[in-house]
Amino acid sequence: MKGVEVRRVETLPPARAPEIEELGRRVSLTEAARLAGFRPRVPADLGPPDEVRFDAAARFVTLVYDPGAKDPLIVAQGAATLDERLVRKVLPAGSRIREIDVDGEPGVFLSGARHGYLLLLLRPDGTTTEDRTRLAANTLIFNRDELVVRIESRGLRLDRALAIARSLR
């Protein structure tokens, strides 16, 4: 898939899954839209999020569902498009990558063993920025309009991820 670089490794480089608090400061949806400069899309399938987080450095809005659970579901989005070099994935044995069509837009679904990822984001003004390397669970990454969207949860199945993606409003 265009925009995705995948490297298989025996062991992952140092990375960890972020805590909910590390996804940014807690804000309302209205405040998130003002700060990010775009209207965050909310999945109709899930309804209003339990928490909204805004990461000023990455300019990402993250909707958090069931934040106190061992396996919360997150829907992260930022004003960017998939760059030629967008996604660098580091996949250990047991990880799988699948190219996916999400309503006519390219995407990838990563599942199996936890993997490391780094996103390179192309901003609307043409500049590129790097997201930090993180450890991730099952994840669907795709474009929706002017946004790059990540849906992630340890128990996330492809059919559920696609239903959530298609319900973004």
Percent of residues in β-strands: over 45%
Calculate Rg over CA atoms. 15 Å
Straight-line N-to-C gap: 26 Å
| Mean pLDDT reading | 83
Measured as a percent range, the helix fraction is 10-25%
How can the largest sheet be summarized?
A: 8 strands, antiparallel
- Please report the total strand number as a whole number: 13
Strands of the largest sheet, in order across it?
2-3-4-5-13-12-8-7
- H-E string: EEHEEEEEEEEEEEH
Which class of secondary structure composition applies to the elements? mainly beta
Continuous helix count: 2
- What is the 3D form? globular
Low-confidence stretches: none
Written account of the structure:
There is one protein chain. With 169 residues, the protein is mainly beta. Helices cover 10% and strands 47% of the residues. It is built from two helices and 13 strands. The longest helix is centred in the last third of the chain and has 9 residues. The chain is globular, with a radius of gyration of 15 Å. 36% of the residues are buried. The model has no long low-confidence stretch (mean pLDDT 83).
